[in-house]
Amino acid sequence: MCAAAAPPLPKGRGPGDGVNRLAITLSLLLLLAAGCRVAAPDAPSAGARLPAAFPNAAAPVDSLGAGGQPWRKFYQDSALTALIDTALRQNLDLRVAVQRVELARADYIERRGALFPTVSLGGTAGLDRYGRYTLNGVGNYDTNLSQNITGNQVIPGPITPDFFGGFRSSWEIDIWGKLRSRRRAAYLRVLASEEGRRLVQTNLIAEIARNYYELLTLDNQLAVVQRNARLQQEALRLIRIQKQAGRATELAVQQFAAQTLRTESLAYEARQGIVETETRLNQLLGRYPAPIKRGTTLPEAGLVGKLGVGIPASALRHRPDVRQAEAELAAGQADIAAAQAAFLPSLTLTPYLGLNAFRADLLFNPNSVVFGVLGGLTGPIINRAAFRADLRRAAAGRNETYYRYQQALQSGYRDVVIGLRGLENYRAIVDLRAREAAQLRSAIETSNELYLAGYASYLEVVTAQRSSLDAELNLANARRDQLQQGILLYQALGGGWTAD
After folding, report:
1. DSSP strand E in 358-423: where?
2. For site-directed labelling of 235, which of 57, 191, 216, 364 has its Cα 20 to 30 A away?
3. Cross-strand pairs, 21
4. Which InterPro entries does this chain map to (predicted)?
5. Is the pLDDT of residue 7 over 80?
6. What span, in angstroms and rounded, lies between the C-alpha atoms of 475 and 414?
7. What DSSP letter does each residue of 450-488 carry, written as one string?
8. Vertex 483, ends 482 and 488: CA angle to 5°?
């Protein structure tokens, strides 16, 4: 609490000296208040240091760079890019994010306008009946008895009208930077909302790509299942012929039939997965279910070859969530400055200019022109709980955004590490599973030949067919996971949006 008592007015001074002393007293109060600025709250504890380099940082680098390129250079499939274009126009989450940006801009307009005076044009009319034993009542009565009052100057009574028309203004002078700090906080939140929109766009593009490649995977698996189903149907037909010839048992027929039924059920699972994935994609596109056009097949699908990551400090700065957290952190610091300045006195000027008279027919008389200005200096002295609460809220908000900033850095670093390692590992996995599937396809032919020659049992044929089917399905999953790792890495580096 800060307060200062005005010194007593010396005797024998004129009214002008009183005005001067009042101005001096107000100046002293302002200077005293300047020393009453509350201390800044403690800063949040520092987070863990960002590593100087990513693991496997020696990975090859191509022209794509670290996250700063448009997504069209990363996703080469024309059908996929067409889906993304549709989503950027129609996705509802993205439209909601755009409206959040508009809300932040509206708040900034309000905060910026607070720095300038408000001017209003209006008129008022009123009636007053003053009592005989009031200052105005006695004053009006005494004024009308004066010999200097004649004609239109006589005050009507006992009911006295009052008419005013003109301009009124109010202007808070931003002495301590409170309003400028609020404007800065609002501006930074506009930037944060823009980064939030880009974050939604980044996640949207990545999610569309994931579902699209999931759809290609299901298409590939359905084709594999149908091809194997045809082979198994042919094998079942042959084993039934052999049973009729006495060269096979009913047990063999049942094993082949069960294998065929299992494969047919896998086809229905793939079809259901296609329906669900297409439905999710259509929702991301902001439309009701409709056919999804494919531009390629899973074995032909691919992303831009390799991604360069650079050093963590620069690579992660391309992430929209990191940039959003940075803007929010700076806005929180501006909130603290504004909350500190709220403890200090505020100076408000309220000038006016207009026409004022106690009779309507005199209102537009040149002699009815009035103008004036009133300056007010107000500041909290007792019970400043609301201001202390605002300061605590601002400090807590700033600390929260700092920790969110640290979370965004850690999440980004984690995703990059997983993506880098995943690209390397899944490249090897796809190669090995492709060789496995080729070997097992050959094993089917070998088992059939050996069975017909009497050197293999029907169980070996069934096992070879099942192993080949599982291997081809696993190969499709590995190819999908390899594509997903590329999407994860590009998203982790802040890709997926254009700087428009």
Report:
1. 369-372, 375-378
2. 216
3. none
4. MdtP/NodT-like (IPR010131), OMP_efflux (IPR003423)
5. no
6. 26
7. HHHHTSS-HHHHHHHHHHHHHHHHHHHHHHHHHHHHHHH
8. 100
User: Closest Cα to residue 346, out of 373, 390, 379?
Assistant: 379
> Counting beta carbons within 10 angstroms of the beta carbon of residue 23, is it exposed (0 to 12), middle (13 to 18) or buried (19 or more)?
exposed
Residues above pLDDT 90, as percent of the chain = 52
pTM summary value? 0.80
From CA 180, how far away is CA 338, in angstroms rounded?
A: 8
Q: Hey, what are 232's tokens?
A: 């198994």
Listed residue (400, 391, 380) closest to 338, CA to CA: 391
Contact 161, 358 (CB under 8 A): yes
Exposure string over 332-350, b if 16+ CB within 10 A, otherwise e: bbbbbbbbbbbbbbbbeeb
Classify residue 59 by its DSSP letter. Answer: S
Domains of the chain: 50-115+177-344+384-492 (1.20.1600.10), 120-144+152-173+346-378 (2.20.200.10)
For residues 423 and 375, the answer to whether their CB atoms sit within 8 Å is no
Q: Could you report the per-residue pLDDT of 199-255, keeping only the tens digit for each?
A: 999 999 999 999 999 999 999 999 999 999 998 998 899 889 988 888 888 998 999
> How far apart, in whole angstroms, are the C-alpha atoms of residue 97 and residue 232?
52
58: helix, strand or coil: coil
What ranges make up the beta strands (E) of 340-441?
346-349, 352-357, 369-372, 375-378
Span 180-196, average pLDDT: 95
